Amino acid sequence: MVVEIGLGTALGAIGAGVAVGMACLGSGIGQGIAAAGSVGAVAEDPDMFARGLIFTALPETQAIYGFLIAILLLVFSGIMGGGAGLSVTAGLVAIGAGSAVGFAGLGSGMGQGITASSAAGAVVEDPDMFARGIIFTAISETQAIYGFLIAILLLVFGGIL
After folding, report:
1. Does 47 have pLDDT greater than 80?
2. What is the CATH number of the domain that holds 152?
3. What is the pLDDT of residues 49-71, one digit of tens each?
4. Which of 113, 95, 116, 117 is closest to 105 using CA atoms?
């Protein structure tokens, strides 16, 4: 059975795709960079494995933010939740929300991965750098949080949530 959806709801689907696609792209690149640095650190010191996994996992949050916004868009646009669907104006707001979290996650994830990779290398040289490395790595998260918050505000005040 094919379900007919309106243009606004289709725009909401694009917003969901942009949210998760761009955020996961940044997160995946960042995790790859962090994993590469962590592999080098583990090669120098096998005891770095657990700490390397932690540094590699940190850029995952950008993908989670994009995923959450995408799910909200899919449910409240009527695609998954059986709602009435979105108007064209609300659909355009959905693209803005998806873009906010997606592009913020893209940049933040890559930056976080670069920092995490350097931090893993620093911990091999000085194990006391672990906590400071986590802090430096977390600083790059700020931009992703901005994008996530703007996306939520757009969804709330744009009439989607």
Report:
1. yes
2. 1.20.120.610
3. 999 999 999 999 999 999 999 99
4. 113
Tokens 């977390």 appear where? 138
Structural domain span for residue 153: 7-157
Q: How many angstroms separate the Cα of 99 from the Cα of each of 16, 38, 66, 93, 141?
A: 9, 31, 9, 10, 17
Spatial separation of the C-alpha atoms in residues 72 and 13, rounded to whole Å:
11
Count the domains in the chain: 1
Any domain includes 58? yes
Q: Give φ, ψ of 2 to 5 degrees.
A: -95, 130
Q: CA–CA separation, 44 vs 8, rounded Å?
A: 54
pLDDT per residue as tens digits for the range 80-89: 866 678 999 9
- Angle, vertex CA 34, rays to CA 126 and CA 152, nearest 5: 120
Residue 39 forms part of a structural domain: yes
| CA distance linking residue 138 with residue 76, whole number of Å | 31
Residue 48 located in a structural domain = yes
**CB-based contacts of 135: which residues, under 8 Å, 6+ apart?**
none
